[in-house]
Specification:
Helix content: 10-25%
Distance between the termini: 5 Å
Shape: globular
Low-confidence stretches: none
Number of helices: 6
Bound molecules: zinc ion
Strand content: 25-35%
């Protein structure tokens, strides 16, 4: 797909400067002059009327006083070092935190040490308006902190592990084994039959939400085989030819989505009710109505998701 990298989180050519990560002295020096992106309970610090820019803070800023003290080096942005830190222990005063951590969290948190209009927001709600550079920086930071949060102990011996290599590695304090950040491959597929596209929904999704089918790639499996297996398991549809289209890092918590196109060999749907609640074929005409937000029953796909990107480009005949 020629325009694959225009998807949200499709990359910005960030210089990750991996060769610098092992130089602790240099990292400390960069930290004093670099930009810091704070994350709070998985939410990102943004500013601007449409929340279209990441807010970057200097080291020593009072809003960073709740930082864990561990800084992840994300790379050099036009020569400027950029780090991320976690300030999740900060307790926002007088704010309703009921929505924080929910699937859809439209709430914003205002830190008293920050200027007006600078807020913590859920990445899903702002991802489509961020610049490619900001999107790459924050997707990287979020995925790494998700990994650190769930990998405090060594998978080999159970000993405590500690962050090293400027956040890109953990070493076990008992057996000294090294552990590296995980990325989990997921296939997400446009399954078409002539002029029709297969859509489905998982149990528990918000009402009216449908998407293309998706599922984790299993060990020992190719992307093509994962597409055919997942679609058959969930819908009873057999898939013939499969082509790869585009990929999207998806830091919820640490996936890499592989967008594919598969041609259905049959049209009779038999759903697996454990995995999905409903599936059906939608015509191009009806999908256009959905994408325009004008369908009476089905919600438009979220802007910024690869599902929305693939469906939009299928409708526009731009999959090649
Ligand atoms: Zn160990």
């Amino acid at each position: 797909m020629k325009i694959a990298e225009t998807v949200t989180f499709g990359g910005s050519g960030l210089d990750r400067a991996a060769q610098l990560r092992g130089d602790a002295t240099l990292m400390q020096k960069h930290l004093t002059t670099g930009d810091i992106l704070p994350l709070w309970r998985g939410k990102v610090l943004v500013q601007g009327e449409a929340r279209e820019n990441l807010a970057r803070l200097p080291q020593g800023h009072p809003a960073l006083k709740d930082s864990t003290g561990e800084y992840i080096f994300l790379g050099l942005d036009d020569g400027q070092a950029v780090f991320a830190c976690d300030i999740s222990s900060w307790e926002p005063p007088d704010q309703d935190l009921e929505l924080v951590g929910q699937f859809f969290d439209p709430s914003e948190q205002i830190h008293p040490e920050l200027a007006q209009g600078v807020v913590f927001a859920e990445l899903r709600s702002v991802m489509a308006q961020l610049s490619p550079r900001d999107a790459e920086l924050v997707a990287t930071a979020k995925a790494l902190f998700n990994w650190h949060d769930s990998h405090g102990f060594c998978a080999k011996c159970g000993g405590k592990s500690a962050m090293t290599m400027a956040g890109w590695q953990r070493n076990c304090t008992l057996c000294d084994s090294s552990h590296f950040p995980r990325t989990d491959p997921v296939v997400i597929m446009l399954i078409t039959h002539g002029n029709q596209l297969l859509l489905g929904r998982s149990p528990g999704w918000p009402e009216g939400m449908y998407s293309t089918l998706a599922g984790f790639v299993e060990p020992g499996e190719t992307l093509e085989a994962a597409v055919r297996r997942e679609v058959f398991e969930e819908s009873g549809i057999e898939v013939g030819a499969v082509t790869y289209l585009a990929s999207q890092p998806w830091a919820f918590p640490s996936s890499l989505m592989f967008g594919c196109h598969g041609e259905a060999l049959n049209t009779d749907i038999t759903i697996d009710p454990v995995e999905i609640e409903d599936a059906f074929w939608i015509s191009r005409e009806d999908l256009m109505q959905v994408m325009a937000g004008e369908h009476p029953k089905i919600r438009a796909a979220r802007r910024g998701s690869i599902a929305q990107f693939l469906m939009t480009n299928w409708l526009a005949d731009r999959l090649n």
